[in-house]
Protein: GTPase Obg
Amino acid sequence: MQFIDQAEVEVIAGDGGDGIVAFRREKYVPAGGPAGGNGGPGGSVYVRTVEQLQTLLDFRYAHRFKAENGQRGGRKNMTGATGPDLYLEVPRGTAIYDAHTDELLGDLVTEGQVLCVAQGGKGGLGNRHFLSNRNRAPEHALPGLPGEERRLRLELKLLAEVGIVGLPNAGKSTLIAALSAARPKIADYPFTTLIPNLGVVRRPSGDGTVFADIPGLIEGAHQGLGLGHEFLRHIERTRLLLHLVDATAEHPTENFHTIQAELAAYGHDLIDRPQVLALNKIDALTPEAVTELTQQFADLVPGPVYAISAVAGMGTAPLLQHIWDLLDRAAAEAAIALAEQTLADPVQET
Ligand SMILES: Nc1nc2c(ncn2[C@@H]2O[C@H](COP(=O)(O)OP(=O)(O)OP(=O)(O)O)[C@@H](O)[C@H]2O)c(=O)[nH]1
Ligand SMILES: [Mg+2]
Structure:
């Protein structure tokens, strides 16, 4: 599947239909009253999330979306037909920006969430509306108003709870393949992963948690080097980062610092996200070497250091247990914060 995670589109709402000038014509009534109907409103353009979609591929070739215009008003005070609304369907996790001002118009995360991105124009008033005591036969009507037009930038940010970060070749894809049903490409050269992979990892309770494997980061990634930075935004929403270090590399601790520096430079509070450290590929090291390296890292990071082998499935159970504990704690803290906030500003009675 092709992964398209950004798109620019133009959306144009329908114009309102014109109001018209008309008069009643009845037998034996020389001059009937005004009877020109109002124009119908133009259709609006909405963006809506759809569960089945995974990418913004639909917007790769189609860039212009126009809702229909409202119809002109009719004789006999008939209001013109309303232009049907137009719905653009996007995957959950799509943020919508005004492409010119960069203003965030909406961040659609829940299933079926809807955002109006271009309001249809109002229909014009027909001459019937201008009937008054002073003017029994108004000769004017108003044109419909134009529909709103906008250029939008759609950005898909994956909704994963755990983001796996590390240098190319650290074994990120191997790990997600070992833990979930995801089957990303794995190879012994850097930049095997070109697009993010999502995998659902089952907890013992049966609940699933989404992990994201993104392309490897390298020094300078935050400035656009390599592939990773393109995809760092996909882990902006994660609640926890799993930092994977290749234990067989020449300088594992330096590699660790490289990634930390990139996360810090990227901003968006990524560096403050709770992080779990795992040393991978320990099947290829002697137990002494593993112990020594684990000790070196224990001095570097606040939390525990996990030594694993993604290929051999060694050490992953305690690593996962720690991740579940952290996620549960984060969820509990969020619930407490919300409760405290609610207590602090009780809803004002009116
Ligand atoms: N010995 C050993 N090799 C591993 C282990 N995990 C991954 N590898 C190997 O390391 C190489 C890179 O693995 P990937 O999973 O593609 O690494 P990645 O981090 O996804 O790499 P990019 O997608 O390029 O960023 C492959 O040859 C894997 O077979 C492990 O636990 N032990
Ligand atoms: Mg990979």
Remarks:
- The mean pLDDT is 88.
- The domain at 162-341 is CATH 3.40.50.300 (Rossmann fold).
